[in-house]
Amino acid sequence: MEWENQLIQELQWSNKISNKASKELVAQEIAGLAKDGDVIGAGSGSTVYLTLFALAQRVKQESLHIEIIPASAEISMTCIQLGLPQTTLWNKRPDWTFDGADEVDPHNNLIKGRGGAMFKEKLLIKSSGKTYIIVDESKLVSKLGSKYPIPVEVFPHALSHVENEIRLLGASKISLRLAEGKDGPVFTESGNFILDIHLSNIVPDLEQKLKAITGVIESGLFIGYDITVLMANR
C-alpha cells in the first residue's frame, strides 16, 4: 500500500532558478551519460533538480534502470515525485555523481554548502568513480572565498570550541547561519549547526586543518578532488 503523497507530488524548487534554459541544456547532457544499471549520486542545487527531470524522462522513454543516492531531503523527495528509484551508501556505491558548486577556481577547487548538504555531497564525491560539477559563469572565481564564505558543519555542543579554533586559523569573520522560516540557527539534516567563515588566505591544507578540529563534521572546501567541471551557459 502506498501513500497518496500529495505534498511531495506538489513539491517545487524552493527558489527561482537562474539561467534555467542553459541549465536545462546541461541537465540533458548529464542525463545522457546514464547507462542501464547505473547507481548515480545526486548532490543539491537547481541544476541537480533539473537533471532529475531529464533522467526521469529517459527512464520513462527507454525503460532505463537506474538508482539515485540523494544528498538531501529535497532531492530525495523530488526522486519520489518523479518515480526515480533510490538507494543508499549503506548498500551501493555510486558509479558517478553530479552536483553543483558555489565557487570554482582555475584549478577546479570548490566551495560548496550554501544549501547545507556539503557533508553528504562530499561523501558522495569521495565514494564515486567519476564526478561532474555543473556551474555557470557566475560561479567562476580567480580565488576561493571571493564571493562566499566557507561553510563548516559543526556538532552543536562543540560550537564554542570550534569557533575558538577557527579564529586561531586566522578567520576574519565567523557567523552562525540563521534559519529562514523559523527562529534560531539552521540545522543540517544530521542535526548540526553551520558556521560561515571568512579567511583572506585559503591555503591548500585548510580543508584538512578544519576537519582536524574536534567537533567539525565537514567543511564546504573541496580542494584537489578529481572532478570534471561542466559549464551551464557555454
UniProtKB/TrEMBL annotation:
Top EC group: isomerase
Record-linked InterPro entries: NagB/RpiA_transferase-like, Ribose5P_isomerase_type_A
Entry GO CC: cytosol
EC number: 5.3.1.6
Gene3D superfamilies noted in UniProt: 3.30.70.260, 3.40.50.1360
Keyword Mitochondrion among UniProt keywords: no
A Pfam entry, by short name: Rib_5-P_isom_A
Domain of life the protein comes from: Bacteria
Alphabetically ordered keywords of this record: Isomerase
CDD domains: RPI_A
Name the record gives this protein: Ribose 5-phosphate isomerase A
Protein's organism: Bacteroides uniformis
Name of the encoding gene: rpiA
